[in-house]
Amino acid sequence: MKAMVIHAYGGPEVLRLEEIPRPEPKENEVLVRVIAAGVNPADPLIVSGKYAKEFGTHLPLIPGYDIAGVVEKTGSKITKLKVGDSVYGYVLWGGGWAEFTIATEGEVALKPKSLTFTDAASVPLAALTAWQALIDVAHLGAGQTVLIHGGSGGVGSMAIQIAKARGAKVIATASTPNQDLLKELGADLAIDYTKTKFEEMAKDVDVVLDPVGHDTLERSYAVVKKGGFIATLVSRLDQEKMEAHGIRGASIAVKPNAEELAEITKLIEAKKIKAVVTQVLPLTEAVKALQQAATHHTRGKMVLRVAEDPKS
Asked: Which of 18, 32, 230, 271 could staple 69 via S-S, CB 3.0–4.6 A?
């Protein structure tokens, strides 16, 4: 099979398109014929070796953690999936930037029928990150207010929609060209961070979701009401500042979860969540995709097309 492989950590240019043996699923795994694979902001950091420990990566490495495809073969202990099933998911150990990859039943769920494989590949990691941060950890509920930084990015765009589906009021930040997307996704208040300090418009919020870190996180402590919650994806929280403001928080590390993905599928089929894909490139242009991901200014998600998208 064809796959994008790295043999040494480094910049996007270390990716090589190679012909390698097709993997074989173990008894508790499925082999997925990949139709499309998502590109995430963490991918350049994994390829560079910066996240090697966190992701347990080892060389040679095939990147790609978001996949959508068709089950080609099942292990003897697989009970929920069968050959021919259209699936999508977040595969923890990567391998998605290839014609075939291995997944477990805990990593993939049946693909939403209303989404193409290309759109479906953009969803899992970003949606699960938003879900686990807002619902599992921060316990965001109806009537509460959430401030979502980076609302036009992969996680942010999913977080807005998940929060709205929970009945929350959403304040979201993005740059000038992305204000229209925030409103389209359902944000009640869109803030252009290049023109306005978010703390001037967002006050006494119940929850903050921070995929940005740095100064954005530092300025966020003061906008959370007493007893509120900050969930950050990229930084360590300052315990002293949280205690001073009487708030709680957590650093989020997303985990594959097929059951939660099935809940996300229900919201997609109910038209409460839509995929935001702004660029689709062939697998052969993975280097270009990685270069764009490294800018951390992608609107929605990029997807690599591995095979032609079947009509299903």
From this structure: 32
